[in-house]
Amino acid sequence: MDTRGAFAPETMAEAREQYVETGPAAKVVVRETAKAMSFDADEYADRVTGEVVETARDAIFASMLEVRVADRPTFEEWLETSETYDDSDVELLGSEHVDRIVWHAAPFAGTVIAASFHEEEEAAIGTLRRNAFGRIYHDRLRSGGDAPADVSADASTDER
After folding, report:
1. Does residue 79 contact residue 87 with C-beta atoms inside 8 Å?
2. Please, are residues 76 and 8 in contact by the beta-carbon 8 Å criterion?
3. Which three-class secondary structure state does DSSP give residue 101?
4. Distances in Å between the alpha carbon of 25 and those of 1, 19, 53, 91, 154?
5. CA distance 54 to 58
6. What is the spatial distance between Cα 26 and Cα 44, in angstroms, rounded to a whole number?
């Protein structure tokens, strides 16, 4: 079994903290990308919105989620020996009949998102991370009074 990624939040509070920590990186990525695209100040102000920075933050967070990659028997053994999850907690993307699996476990949600793949491991990891973010984190990170601070609100006023 191979483990990749940096973010494996045990609680929603940890997930929010890690999400907030990606905000400054998202702002830098967007600013530097706009600079590489030769945006002038007016174009930057028009096109680089809080939503753009928020999308970059979502992508950075998702790309850093910890995933495990293994063959199906290893995944089944992991699930069988888990004290937290069982078959009913797994949402499998793809076919049951494919021999490789990538998965992300979210203890606070009681969910494991898994994707089967045959050869394209990197593509499967990317697909899984985007789906895990969308299915587990997105709404939780944006809901409630304890949602993370909005680091993107002033994105369009940043100096290039």
Report:
1. yes
2. no
3. strand
4. 30, 11, 10, 30, 14
5. 6
6. 15
| Alpha helices (runs of H) in 37-155, residue ranges in sequence order | 41-47, 50-63, 72-81, 121-132, 138-142
Largest Cα separation within the chain, whole Å, is 57
Q: How far apart are the first and last CA of the chain?
A: 43
Residue labelled with tokens 């299915």: 135
Instruction: Please list the residues that pair with 18 across neighbouring strands.
Output: none
- pLDDT tens track for 32-61: 999 999 999 999 999 999 999 999 999 999
Mean pLDDT for 120-142 is 95
Nearest in space to 4 (alpha carbons), one of 50, 54, 97, 67:
67
Q: Which residues pair with 71 in a beta bridge?
A: 100
Distances (CA, A) of 55 to 28, 49, 89, 152: 13, 10, 28, 10
Spatial distance between the Cα atoms of 134 and 139, rounded to a whole number of angstroms: 8
Residue 147 is classified by DSSP as P
CB 104 within 8 A of CB 128: yes
Q: How far, in Å, CA of 10 to CA of 109, rounded?
A: 9
What is the tens place of the pLDDT at every residue in 97-109? 999 999 999 999 9
